Amino acid sequence: MIQALLSGILLGGIYGLFAVGFSLVFGVMRIVNFAHGELVMLAMYSGLTVYDLTGIDPLLSLPLTCLLIAGLGVLLYLGAFRHFVGRASMQQLLVAIAIAMILQVGAQIVFGPDTHGMAQSWGSQYLLFGTNFFSYAQVAAFFIALLCVTAVELILRKTRWGQDIRAVADDAEAAELVGLDTHRINTGAFALSCAIAAVAGSVLITYYPVNPGTGFALMPITLIATVVGGLGSVAGAFLGGIACGVISQVAGALAGPALQEVPLYVLLLLFLAFRPQGLFGRRVAF
Known about the structure:
The protein is mostly helical.
């Protein structure tokens, strides 16, 4: 049980990182980006490709991956998502799903349908903690996720740009009246969300294999973590991810791997029924 709890915390940190990027876009622009998982998947392929070609570890090539995925995110925002800022309409959901399918099929054409992973000396070694063991890659991924989330929280709380983002999230019309360029701020916030997805993909590829369907498989847990933590809350999304990781690992230890995600969907139904704003949700974002 201790092994399951600690493994759930480490895994939940990555789930939380997924949810933070997803929640950031919704909190600022009210956009439900169902293509967020595909951006994580492309970041995994980016880190893997750089590693195969040059031998550079994905954690070292992380800045390059962030630039690539953030640039792709800006193109997606300018080309599609900017038309739906402020309203999570059915058309916006369909556009996001279509973009996700296009990215998934494109990855399959470029990289093939097979699953790929990387073998590295430090990532395949394990850290012993009493009778429990964890891979160095999982531990490193958790702490990188924690640092990333802390940095995002500090940016939103302590910097002028972060204050502008929060102002636009609270009331875009009032922000424009005081001279803020909401289009530029929304573009930057969307790029930041995509960069967070790039970090998640870069750390995940160090110990988790990737195929074109990886992002689609990860999105349900991302949605659950976001709902549990509270839409628009960075810290809440991260804690919601940790909660999902712990619940799934404990359920897997008690009932088997085939049933480990069932409690998550039950949890989702309970939150939607009795606390739709989540644990840390508020009337305004952040």
